[in-house]
Amino acid sequence: MKNESRYERGLAKLREIDGKAGEHVLESLDGIAPDFARYLIEFPFGDIYSRPGLDLKSREIAVVAALTALGNAAPQLKVHIQAALNVGVTRTEIVETIMQMAVYAGFPAALNGLAAAKEVFAQQAEQ
Questions:
Q1: Which of 27, 37, 74, 127 has the fewest beta carbons closer than 10 A?
Q2: Alpha-carbon distance 117 to 113, whole Å?
Q3: Where does the signal peptide begin and end (predicted)?
Q4: How far apart are CA 39 and CA 53, in angstroms?
Q5: What region, left, alpha or beta, does residue 55 occupy, with left being phi > 0 and alpha being psi -120 to 50 degrees?
């Protein structure tokens, strides 16, 4: 790990967690902010997600909770719901995590989160 650059480590972690969805996010930034794409790979994935303190399942549960609580990040929430599924979080755990946010972020945020989860689950069923 020490010989890897932040970018290489982050790109590998992004691919492990998000698969094609992560690649699409990076591609969407090509024409407008390629430096931001690099920051997105290096800091969150190269530095934070690569730390040993939490497993990827726990990290994605935390991200789904945080994005649900924000209430204004539906595209990112959908990517991370898919990422959670990719790393072994069950549909039930995702739904329960989102429902828990009703207590702290309100019913509208939880309802929006459940709608995002429903959409991701439906897309997954189609594949």
A1: 127
A2: 6
A3: none
A4: 22
A5: beta
Q: Looking at the structure, tell me whether residues 43 and 83 fall in a common domain.
A: no
pLDDT score, position 91: 98
Residue 36 is part of which domain span? 1-52
pTM equals: 0.90
Co-location of 68 and 20 in the same domain: no
Same domain, 42 and 65: no
Same domain flag for 100 and 83? yes
How many structural domains does the chain have? 2
Q: Would the pLDDT of 17 be above 80?
A: yes
Distance in angstroms (rounded) separating the CA atoms of residues 41 and 87: 18
What are the CA-CA distances from residue 15 to residues 46, 47, 66 (Å)?
A: 11, 15, 21
> Do 113 and 100 fall into the same domain?
yes
pLDDT of residue 2: 59
The least confident of 1-5, 22-26, 37-41 is: 1-5
C-alpha separations of 76 from 24, 47, 55 in Å = 12, 19, 20
